[in-house]
Write a structure and sequence with these properties.
265 residues, 4-stranded antiparallel sheet, Butyryl-CoA Dehydrogenase, subunit A, domain 3, mainly alpha, binds zinc ion
Length: 265
């Protein structure tokens, strides 16, 4: 199934009117870099340094439902059957249910924020003071999209991937396709960008909803799992020195607090 032919076919979010201009990828299993949104480098900003983001401030940075080290639940999440976990515990047989849980939870959080993530408030897919992700359209051109449109594209694409039995086999005896690791990495990279935008642009609303412990827990689990299974690229998490990803600093803070006892640098 192609990416956009099935918008609205499955999963939670109602399609929005601004999905009409979607580019059309050629395949549901295109390589990780094809049709990939990417980062438009911008000049470093001039002027006084930006104030510290709220998500890096106490007590919000420590607010998490699960206390202690997330590695323990990465190694064996309590809601994953141990036999299933053992059976799928390799890169080629990835516990797709967990990826589905990340997607579903993130989608629910974003669904609550859509009234704030408007074209007016978020004209670009921002994730740091000097960082705006761009989308590659069907002409292979980098284009800026409003964050809401960008996130719609990402979430619809991920939903279709998770729903596609040729990408995520759900029946016993079906092999995982050779492109599976790169597909999962690509999904991870895109979901990371959605997290990064929410932290950068909507953390005040998360606080207003008193959801920061839940959101931090979800993100910490996402990071710990991604690091454990090498799905996270540090360059995606941290960005460049001139265009850092805001949540890259959160990763460092949580590592320093022992929340993420992972070996990745
Ligand atoms: Zn937004």
């Amino acid at each position: 199934m192609s990416f956009f032919n099935s918008i609205g076919r499955s999963m939670a979010r109602a399609p929005r009117s601004n999905t009409k201009r979607a580019p059309t990828p050629t395949s549901a299993t295109f390589p990780a870099d094809a049709q990939s949104p990417t980062v438009l480098k911008q000049s470093p900003s001039i002027g006084p340094p930006a104030p510290k983001p709220l998500y890096l401030c106490s007590p919000f940075v420590e607010a998490a439902l699960v206390k202690g080290n997330f590695k323990t639940i990465v190694v064996l999440p309590k809601y994953v059957d141990i036999m299933e976990w053992v059976a799928v515990n390799s890169m080629h047989a990835f516990p797709s249910r967990l990826l589905f849980d990340f997607y579903t939870n993130l989608n629910e959080f974003y669904g609550v924020l859509t009234e704030f993530c408007t074209q007016h408030n978020c004209p670009t897919m921002s994730a740091g003071p000097t960082l705006n992700y761009t989308w590659i359209n069907q002409d292979r051109k980098h284009v800026h999209l409003p964050a809401s449109t960008y996130i719609d594209y990402v979430m619809t694409w991920v939903a279709n991937m998770l729903d596609d039995d040729s990408v995520f086999p759900t029946k016993a005896g079906h092999d995982f396709p050779p492109s599976f690791p790169s597909t999962v990495k690509h999904i991870y990279r895109q979901l990371l960008r959605v997290f990064a935008h929410i932290y950068h642009a909507h953390f005040a609303q998360i606080l207003h909803l008193r959801s920061e412990p839940h959101f931090n827990s979800l993100f910490a689990h996402f990071l710990a799992f991604g690091a454990e299974f090498e799905l996270l690229e540090m360059k995606d998490l941290k960005g460049s020195s001139s265009s850092p990803v805001g949540v890259g600093a959160l990763w460092e803070r949580w590592k320093g607090m022992g929340i993420l006892a992972v070996s990745a640098s």
